[in-house]
Design a protein that fits this description.
The protein is α/β, with parallel strands linked by helices. The chain is built from 12 helices and 6 strands. The longest helix has 31 residues. It is elongated, with a radius of gyration of 24 Å.
């Protein structure tokens, strides 16, 4: 394995959300990476020659001890060899530890797994192929400086809270719902403003609280990624697609920030799929996938939930992600032709 190829692969790993393992002294261990996808902790080792088994065994005990702290139940170890003969570690079976062996041909980019092992694992096979094809490392640019504040998230939360207090403590609830909540018949009469105003109304404390948790957990990270203006655009656009889907399927009052939030979760899901963990590891693809599926499934079990609106918001997030990523590729192509 050439030093250039290994360096390229390591850069790809770090860029896509894998963390390089460090010794107690603080020095990084060459070729050894981890990534957490609850409830699984992955450990990937790729170095030259016969050093792989020794390196992995040396750090396995430490990683195994970290499982409870990370709230993980399994450790998956991936050994990537470039030699035809793959040395297999002989050790006692442990239910929480799983070993996968790959032989990687640096000439053709082909991955050959050990019999019974998977040939694909959280996208690592793609990073291997990109490394030998000299594909530039694509990194997600964070739009908002770390020291900056999530102003849009804060303003959305404050507006929703103030509106909720006015509805439930000043006894304006019925009037505000009838005047500002989304309803098909009202929209068809020209009250288009309801698409926006409905995004800031909530029916009860639990409705407000659950949306507030989602906004805090995902919104702050997505605002860092998109920047203030694009994040606001995303919230309003996905709220609009949520409203359109809602009035197409029903003619009842619909309200809440869920449309924009479900669109935000869909974009976060797509970003973590392409770029790996985001938000210092707080958002990973597997956890997001489980959360989104659970949220949609719970919507179908609750007759008061506007699930078609949620799905409409998610479709809006999917569409906006495609537009933003498409523009990025167009800009890259334009820069390369200059």
């Amino acid at each position: 394995m050439s030093e250039k190829w290994l360096t390229q692969f390591q850069n790809q790993m770090v860029t896509h959300g894998f963390s390089q393992v460090k010794e107690r002294s603080g020095f990084p261990v060459v070729g050894l990476f981890t990534r957490m996808e609850n409830p699984v902790l992955y450990c990937i080792c790729c170095v030259e020659g016969t050093e792989i088994p020794a390196i992995m065994l040396h750090h396995t005990k430490t990683l195994e001890g970290m499982l409870p702290k990370l709230q993980c139940t399994h450790l998956v170890r991936l050994f990537i060899h470039t030699e035809q003969e793959i040395p297999i570690i002989e050790e006692a079976y442990r239910e929480e530890i799983h070993s996968v062996y790959w032989w990687f041909d640096t000439e053709t980019g082909k991955v050959t797994p050990r019999t019974g092992d998977p040939s694909k694992l959280i996208g690592i096979e793609k990073l291997l192929q990109q490394s030998i094809s000299n594909t530039p490392v694509e990194k997600l640019k964070v739009a908002m400086p770390k020291a900056d504040k999530p102003f849009v998230c804060l303003h959305i939360a404050v507006i929703c809270l103030l509106v909720f207090l006015a509805m439930h403590f000043l006894d304006f609830g019925g009037v505000m719902v009838q005047t500002f909540a989304l309803k098909r018949s009202a929209v068809f009469q020209g009250e288009i403003y309801r698409f926006v105003t409905a995004m800031f109304l909530h029916s009860g404390w639990m409705h407000l609280f659950s949306n507030g948790v989602i906004l805090y957990y995902f919104g702050i990270q997505m605002e860092r990624i998109l920047g203030h203006k694009k994040f606001l655009l995303m919230y309003l656009f996905c709220g609009l697609t949520c409203g359109i889907a809602s009035i197409l399927c029903q003619d009842v009052y619909s309200l809440g920030a869920s449309g924009g939030l479900f669109g935000m979760m869909m974009m976060a899901l797509l970003y973590t799929k392409k770029y790996g963990n985001l938000g210092r590891g707080r958002m990973n693809h597997a956890t997001l996938m489980i959360f989104v599926i659970y949220a949609v499934a719970m919507g179908f079990t609750n007759t008061t939930t506007d699930n078609m609106g949620h799905i409409g918001g998610m479709l809006g997030g999917l569409l906006l992600y495609g537009i933003l990523e498409g523009r990025k590729k167009t800009n890259i192509s334009t820069d390369e032709t200059k």
